[in-house]
Amino acid sequence: xxxxxxxxxxxxxxxxxxxxxxxxxxxxxxxxxxxxxxxxxxxxxxxxxxxxxxxxxxxxxxxxxxxxxxxxxxxxxxxxxxxxxxxxxxxxxxxxxxxxxxxxxxxxxxxxxxxxxxxxxxxxxxxxxxxxxxxxxxxxxxxxxxxxxxxxxxxxxxxxxxxxxxxxxxxxxxxxxxxxxxxxxxxxxxxxxxxxxxxxxxxxxxxxxxxxxxxxxxxxxxxxxxxxxxxxxxxxxxxxxxxxxxxxxxxxxxxxxxxxxxxxxxxxxxxxxxxxxxxxxxxxxxxxxxxxxxxxxxxxxxxxxxxxxxxxxxxxxxxxx
Length: 321
What we know:
- The protein has 16 helices and no strands.
- The chain is an all-alpha fold.
- Helix 7 packs antiparallel against helix 8 (151-169), helix 9 (173-196) packs parallel to helix 11 and helix 15 (279-303) packs antiparallel against helix 16 (308-318).
- The termini are far apart.
């Protein structure tokens, strides 16, 4: 039986009405450093235990964890909850595996099903039986590769498997279509980076993801063409919005990720008129991720005394007017 999202969407819409708007982040940029933590606490409850502004990552982590706890608490279907949380487990697996290869501590989130300590123990000790089934197969593949696999290769392999799993696990055609669109946007990012970053170009094949609306073979052809020709294609595609948001030959590389996320949110606004499927839930999580990224940009900029106009430029990239 399909999940009824009417109550879930109503609750999330009520939360969205009270979420900080663009002007709140703009005011935060202008807030003096000694008043910054109090200003954030007034709006973000997860920051209440944070004692020093330099510990802002703890607050952001708690904010995202609380968001997923709330959303998953509203969704009655266990398979949908798995679909929402599992991407964080895949990301943690990739980070933990790369950290183990580099013999460095891993920085993991608590948003998935697997506790970060359990994840690190499973990866470093190769106790892969500790992992759930949807992670174990890809972890076993990484382990079989042994020393032939470097940190970047491990990251690419886990990313590929994450998206393959999401396409298969998507709860319904609407969610599957949204996943395929996100795969396309991830491939746009990879193509742009390959044109700008000589280090990434030789490994583009590993970074391109199968399963989107546009075949991976077509993305490979774009990599062989000029960057300008690639943007000409985007102009005629369903992703022309990226160009209106500033993606192009003159776009600095640091703006690519913010543009991709802003486009994801804009393309998901169709869910505003929906109440009966999962799309409004995915859109809500995108909004919360955008806000957490904005918060990180602003707080990191303020703590490191980056000029306000540069911090504001970051805000404008993620939340265009």
